[in-house]
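Section 4.2 – Deliverable D4.2 (structural model, holo form)

The reporting period included a commitment to supply a predicted holo structure for the target in complex with pyridoxal-5'-phosphate. Inputs used:
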Amino acid sequence: MIGSLPPDSKLPSYRELQQRYRLSPATVQRILAALARRGLVVTRPGSGTFTAARRRAAPVADVSWQTLALGSRAGLGPELERLIEPSPPDAIALASGFLDERLQPLRLLAAAASRAARRPQGWSRLPSQGLPELRSHFASETGGGLTAQHVLITSGGQNALSAVFRHLCAPGDPVIVESPTYVGALAAARAAGLVLVPVPGDRDGVLPDALADALARTGARLAYLQPRYANPHGSVLAPDRRGAVLDALARCGAFMIEDDWMRDFDLGQPSPPPLASMDDDGHVIYLRSLSKPVAAGMRVAGLAARGPVLARLRRGRMSDDLFVAPVLQQIALDVLTAAGWDRHLGGVRRVLRERRDALAVAVRDLLPGCDLDTVPAGGMHLWLRLPDGSSDADVAEAAAARRLAVGPGRACFPGEPPGSYLRLSYAAEEAPSLIRGAQILADVLNAEMRGHQMAR
Ligand SMILES: Cc1ncc(COP(=O)(O)O)c(C=O)c1O
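Output (structure tokens):
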């Protein structure tokens, strides 16, 4: 009734309302009070109850001063938002950087969370380096004689990357990155004011000679590498390159971040152990995050390093946010050491293997003009080269219009991309949707091709 009346109209009396809606006087009073609280009616004592007067539109805040105050800041582009924001609910999600919720170890998480929340230590202070038992767990997983004292807990892999870039380097310093690489690492390095120095790689990982040359030429003291199923292209650093990479770092007195984001996702034969397990002299800063094997919201990761660098990072991290919520660290430890953990990982790997195979077959069958250089033996992405002349951004936009979300590859290159690529993730969709996604992509590319032909 209120919706149908003009503003400031008098409502029928209490008695009429009681009769019309067959309500008790108390109920009418309660409903009118609730409507008044929501600002829909006003009661004027002695006159009755009225629909509210039309609200004046709230004045638009003038925030134009912020344009001057903020200035410009390089590096904080939209790529990260794309990584984190879920695809629209009715779209096929091939752009996702995370496993879908159905693959979370929800039972283990719920049990661990309820235990952790009941312990007073879950809510207390902790040594800033992190929960000793969790550090010990990460250290023994990594191998190479690392112990709890070499490990620092951070709130996720992204936080660890940003902390290393900010606390080991100063704005203007060079940092070596593989090209292409993880967009989040590029964003964090740019936000820290670092100068990106791209080095090439191939399906066997970074080229050690190119790395050595870049280190010597630029004087960079830090390189960011992903030796296992690198995001986005899936390369694994070949065993015969590992020694050469460590030698190059040692010759130039440099650190490297080994971002082992896919340590749990060998989908076939086991990949080589971390470089950190071969490094005695503290060149490797090893990063192991839990957001992929556990859940995107598990913001816990371990950074392992030998030597004074760990103290530098620990102090830096304290200046950032003191320490990571103890309750979350305890949950992480409980889940990683639960009896069902290995079973969970085995199940996720089986699902990912099926999805990867389904997507790889669909891509090869339906997208003959595209090039899939490798089907990685692990991880969760395929890296697809589009036909010459196609634009990854245009293809991604046309796909989005057909409810298919794919990641344009250009954001993964620190400089100009050498071609057009898409990153197709099989982490978040089941086989039929992956196949449907490849079909949509084929339609988009065919439509593009027809467009090009007509333009000629
Ligand atoms: C290669 C790589 N490193 C690090 C991260 C960040 O991980 P986290 O979710 O733990 O912050 C991601 C996330 O997608 C990633 O792909």
